[in-house]
Amino acid sequence: MGLVSLVGGGPGDPGLLTLKGMECLRRAEVVIYDHLVNERLLQYAPPGVELIYAGKKGGQHALEQEEISALLADRARRGMRVVRLKGGDPFLFGRGGEEAEDLTKAGIPFEVIPGVSSAIAVPAYAGIPLTHRGYTSTVAFVSGHEDASRESSRIPWEKIATGLGTLVFLMGYGQLRSIAERLIQEGRDPKTPVALIRWGTLPQQETIVGSLRDIARRAKEAHFSPPVILVVGEVVRLRPILNWFECKPLFGKRIVVTRAREQASTLIELLEAQGAEAIPLPVIQIQPASDYQKLDQAIGQIETYDWVIFTSVHGVGFFWERLKAMGMDSRDLKGIRLGAIGPATASELRGHGLEPDLVPSEFRAEALLEGLQGETLKGKHILIPRAAKARDLLPKGLRQRGAGVEVVEAYQTGKAATDFRRIRGRLVRGEIDVVTFASSSTVHHFMEGMGRGGIDSLGENTAIACIGPITTATARDYGLKVVIQPREYTIPSLVKAIASFFEKGGGRS
């Protein structure tokens, strides 16, 4: 017999998934997930896991509740580890209690992994504390599905209207007008502050503030639509002071990340920390070398080299894999000087217990050559393990200084199987604020994937950001107008440059 884990996936921001929920996903053999679950959470599931969508949107069900319960029981009886991934918390308006009852009746073992509820997280992201000593010590969470105008309501309107400080309604947008009217009818002051929060905790979060008297009109004028959370109470007055999320430098900006999937996480995390919606579009993929014979041969005679120069994090990683495969370790590099282009490459070396002897101030080959100006290179033997296709500037410059340079393939950069249709459509509709490029190869493959109309589809309102002058030159060769380039050629500096661009009034008007 397997096990069913009822896991709360949180309110939308993938960073709000609990550690225990993440571990459940990593061990899962089947994941059955809902509509409001952020699909980025599925990346924690192992390769080959069975993914089953069971969402409900606008009253349309991918699977009926009885079918979901039957699926859970069936996969568990097969001895599988099943994760039932639900938005928010499974036991707060998530029908998790019903599913747990069905599992109990079927004799299926289960566990419950609580999640961060949208009822708490969404107001917090809108700068609204549900309780506050200066305002109220009571709060109620109410399902907004029920028609508030019904006489035989299961909700004690006459009690909650005036008996509680803060009211949080989930799934109540369709009944917004009747909820407001019923609360006023039962004695709540029509001037009571109200907030409507849409897509809470995500970069596309929108908030409307009004009163019970006018919130329905304001929502209609703003063309609001679900998913929405309604907060009623004096605590809403704190929003102008405590609104932290929507004030982030890149809040609401939609930024395309073209880096390889293996490289993109740092850039995505930094953009999201600034409030942006990072849109992964991996146009390249990192692959093992086509043949490791030359790299293995070089490692086998590593003691003959005076320098080993690494031009990327991946060069370090694949070099280390082959070093270990040959039964060697960092001690075999004793006495050999190490160069690293870029702080990330240097950090990767340090992770293996090695301190690089040279890290140029700029993230490019030219800077490394400048850093070696004081070195006598004539007669020195230098190894450069790097991508199969790369610029010849570094080895050529070293050879001109009299060094013997051996360049060996440590890995390949290839074209990723990426579907460009969705991103092309968003570009045409003007929904993308920035496209980022961290290497010339990302530019090449992006433009190839976009097709002949690629430049036109970018439009005037889409800014192009490149990590450094080499990438910028490649983008301009394609006719792209690069408006963002950091002074330091690093990922953190690229994010800072993007934020600075918008702070100075760049982007769409």
How many structural domains can be distinguished in the coordinates?
Answer: 4
Number of strands: 22
Q: What portion of residues belong to β-strands?
A: 15-25%
Q: In CATH terms, what is the architecture of the largest domain? A: 3-Layer(aba) Sandwich
Mean pLDDT, all residues: 91
Look up the CATH topology of the largest domain: Rossmann fold
Can you offer a commentary on this structure?
The protein is α/β, with parallel strands linked by helices. It has four domains: 3-116, Cobalt-precorrin-4 Transmethylase, domain 1 (3-Layer(aba) Sandwich); 120-242, 2-Layer Sandwich (Methyltransferase, Cobalt-precorrin-4 Transmethylase, Domain 2); 254-283 and 417-503, Rossmann fold (3-Layer(aba) Sandwich); 287-414, Rossmann fold, CATH 3.40.50.10090. It has 19 helices and 22 strands. Strand 8 (139-143), helix 5 and strand 9 form a beta-alpha-beta unit. Helix 11 (313-325) packs parallel to helix 12, helix 13 (365-371) packs parallel to helix 14 (393-400) and helix 16 packs parallel to helix 18. The mean pLDDT is 91.
Short description:
Helices cover 33% and strands 21% of the residues. With 509 residues, the protein is an alpha/beta fold.
